[in-house]
Design a protein that fits this description.
5-stranded mixed beta sheet; 187 residues; 4 helices; alpha+beta
Length: 187
């Protein structure tokens, strides 16, 4: 179980928890040398999460949505993008609050990765802020699932970047929300 807030991805898959968010399935982007390699890793992660959800829940994923939000560090803890216990989850829980409302009706939110300064490829450091790099990755995922390899389940309707922060954050979470069919899939 996470140190604070949310649940585990395994619990989301098992159905033993009510709709919630999970931060324990993040992948590291620090060793990815380029935007392309980071994008490929995130695409693979989204596909794996969708597949795992369908397999473990016995229900089809009806739709999914890709987004980004800020992540702050806990005071008196060293920040680690792979350690959700070192993050304040205000941005994540705020996004989840919006997505779980009846108008959206999402079943879960899964954080895919957290982009910090070290995740920005070395040739881009000093030229691009981590928030802009997270935005570029989000846009690359949307481009992939909406244009390159269209997936009818993608719920994003535009390539809108959302708002940018007035105050800088230590990291930015790239996440996906999902909605499952209410009826179990036929085997």
């Amino acid at each position: 179980m996470p140190r604070s807030g949310g649940t585990t991805f395994g619990s989301l898959c098992s159905g033993i928890v009510r709709p919630n968010y999970a931060c324990d399935s993040v992948i590291s982007l620090r060793e990815k040398e380029s935007l392309e390699k980071a994008k490929d890793a995130l695409i693979e992660r989204v596909q794996k999460i969708l597949s795992t959800l369908e397999k473990k829940t016995g229900r089809n994923v009806k739709e999914f949505y890709i987004g980004k939000t800020c992540v702050q560090k806990h005071k008196r803890r060293s920040f680690g993008p792979m350690d959700p216990g070192t993050w304040r989850k205000d941005g994540i829980s705020s996004r989840w609050g919006r997505h779980k409302k009846k108008s959206y009706g999402k079943d879960g939110l899964v954080v895919l990765a957290v982009v910090d300064r070290e995740a920005v490829p070395s040739e881009c450091r000093g030229k691009i802020h981590q928030e802009n790099y997270a935005l570029a990755l989000e846009q690359q995922l949307l481009h992939h699932f909406m244009i390159e390899d269209p997936d009818d389940r993608i719920a994003n309707e535009t390539f809108s970047t959302g708002r940018t922060e007035k105050k800088s954050s230590i990291g930015h979470a790239i996440y996906m929300t999902y909605t499952l069919d209410r009826i179990k899939a036929a085997k």
